[in-house]
Amino acid sequence: MSRLLIEEHPVLIIPSLAVKLGIREAVVLQQMHYWIVKSTHIREKRKWVYNTYKDWHEQLPFWSERSIRHTIYSLEKKGLLRSAMFNKSRMDQTKWYTIDYEKLAKLDIQDPQVQSPALHGQMSWQRLADEEVSLTKPIPEITTETTTKKIHIPFSEIVEYLNSKTGSAYKPSTKRTRDLIRARWNEGFTLKDMKKVIDLKTAEWLHNPYWRKYLRPETLFGTKFESYLNQKPTVKRVWREEEFNLDD
Q1: Which residues partner with 97 through β-bridges?
Q2: Which residue among 120, 126, 146, 241 is the one 20 to 30 A from 47 at the CA level?
């Protein structure tokens, strides 16, 4: 079997949603929903997620960054996607997004009459959508009972390990650093994985005047984390004296 069919996370499409909005809008909205479910950022009693257009493009590389930008704008114009600026610095123009689930529900996107030809009428898109995570169901507000069940993430151990390897002085309490580590942790990566990436990239970048500046949390624990984790260790070649022909 081709590895292309099993090695990557699939991109979900709810067909009835695609009929209503278009394929691109349906895919982007579903991708937004995926991250909103995992988000811990709550404003105005809603969960929000932030990513740059470049970040979204890395998740949906089959479309250009420009196409993704236009698709997000289309969803905002339809009122299905809300955007805001919650950044402390005015220089930080990263946009935050949330889905207006109430408005989405009014589209009545689950149409039991729309069925897949491949299923020969045995399963409607309503049922197919329900078997995934339905986009029309708002995410429950976080209550005191749910917030008490916190997952322990070793922020201090990870950041202190990075500092010890690179001679840096990053703080484990920095919000951006914690958000990045939490995002990777929620994806299933472990402390061992974090340390491995730090070791791999330190060995590769530390003594390079240009690349060593990227030994920082936003690079190491960003969207390329899994690629770093799976790269081969840098091999340093030891030259033997007989390989140098000084008589040439």
Answers
A1: 49, 83
A2: 126
CA distance 49 to 101: 15
DSSP symbols for 55-111? HHHHHSTTS-HHHHHHHHHHHHHTTSEEEE---SSTT----EEEE-HHHHHTT----
CB 35 within 8 A of CB 49: yes
Residue type, 153: I
Please, what's the largest Cα pairwise distance for the chain? Answer: 84
Helices (H) and strands (E) in the chain, counts: 12, 4
pTM for the full model?
0.42
Angle at the Cα of 33 from the Cα atoms of 108 and 102, rounded to 5 degrees:
40
Question: Domains in the chain, start-ordered, CATH in brackets?
Answer: 9-131 (1.10.10.10), 155-229 (no CATH)
- Please, what's the b/e burial string for 51-72 (b: 16 or more CB within 10 A of its CB; e: otherwise)? beeeebbeebeebebeebeebb
Q: How far apart are CA 198 and CA 189, in angstroms?
A: 13
Question: How far lies 208's CA from each of 119, 146, 211, in Å?
Answer: 57, 46, 5
The closest of 59, 55, 48 to 83, measured between CA atoms, is 48
pLDDT, one tens digit per residue, over 183-239 is: 999 888 999 999 999 999 999 999 999 999 999 999 999 999 999 999 887 665 544
